Amino acid sequence: MLKISNLTKRFGGIIAVNDVSFKIEKGEIVGLIGPNGAGKTTLINLISGFYSPDNGKIEFNGQDITKKRMNERAKLGIARTFQNPRVISNMTAHMNVLYAILGSEYGKGMTMTEAGAEAIYYLDLFGLLKKRDVLAGDLAIYELRLLELARALALKPKLLLIDEAMAGLNPVEAEAVSKLINRIRSEFDLTIMWIEHVLKVLMRSAERVLVMHYGRLIADGKPEDVVRRPEVVEAYIGEEEV
Ligand SMILES: Nc1ncnc2c1ncn2[C@@H]1O[C@H](COP(=O)(O)OP(=O)(O)O)[C@@H](O)[C@H]1O
Ligand SMILES: [Mg+2]
Predict the structure, then answer these.
(1) Residue 130 CA, ligand 2 centroid: distance in Å
(2) Residue nearest to atom 6 of ligand 1 (CA)
(3) Cβ–Cβ under 8 Å, residues 206 and 162
(4) Which domain holds residue 28?
(5) pLDDT, tens digit, for every residue of 65-116?
């Protein structure tokens, strides 16, 4: 479904993503881990089209999308969530999802009422029905993370890129989010690339893990195998939590 070849992105002297290649098959849930600054968010920005690469190629369902703009990639079915939730603070939870739907490909011909009902469906799915009329700016971090997921899923993506859904959550909340992500994957026939800084979280959810360090892909395999590799252990030395 997704094929990345020799992808490179530089910021001045920093090579944030350095000659990265991998494939993701339809239906997979792939974790992407690595210490802070490893290049994980930059990689998502390249796949979603927020940045264009200095080198390399991105193919989605056999189509070269390297030069396509962000909205064109969204139309093809690529959606993402943000590490720092990018909701509109002075709009309600409901309106945040509603406007995302109206701006999407399938929502174009919809009336406000239709999009509103559709938005309610996604809020309900993420347990946010009671918060529908609360301004996004007044939501707790846990609810914001759920709202980000609801909004991304409401775009009916084929590939969902999740950037740190667990940051700032307590273990109970993290477990709940993890269950929801696994549930939507099977119910919505999704392919998911899921970034998390903390390795433990992904160990339980992902079937396959990619590890980045200083812009390079240093491991790709089953979570239980990957964590034992010396280069992965080495990359995480000095990090507080593994
Ligand atoms: N827009 C940018 N401008 C300059 N440097 C950036 C930019 N985005 C990321 N970087 C740098 O690229 C490297 C990788 O960052 P990032 O992809 O955010 O890592 P991660 O998400 O793994 O923590 C870091 O050194 C970061 O400072
Ligand atoms: Mg990041």
Answers:
(1) 30
(2) 11
(3) no
(4) 2-84+155-236
(5) 999 999 999 999 999 998 887 889 999 999 999 999 999 989 999 999 999 9
Question: What would the pLDDT profile of 133-163 be if each residue is shown by its tens digit?
Answer: 999 999 999 999 999 999 999 999 999 999 9
Ligand that comes closest to the CA of residue 162 = 2
Q: Is 148 within 8 Å of 80 (Cβ atoms)?
A: no
75: domain CATH number?
Answer: 3.40.50.300
Ligand 1 pocket test target in 11, 54, 164 with most atoms within 8 Å of CB: 11
pTM (predicted TM-score): 0.93
CA dist 198 and 30 (Å) reads 14
* Site to substitute for ligand 1 among 42, 54, 162, most atoms within 8 A of C-beta: 42
**Number of folded domains that form the chain:** 1
Q: Are 161 and 80 in contact (CB under 8 A)?
A: yes
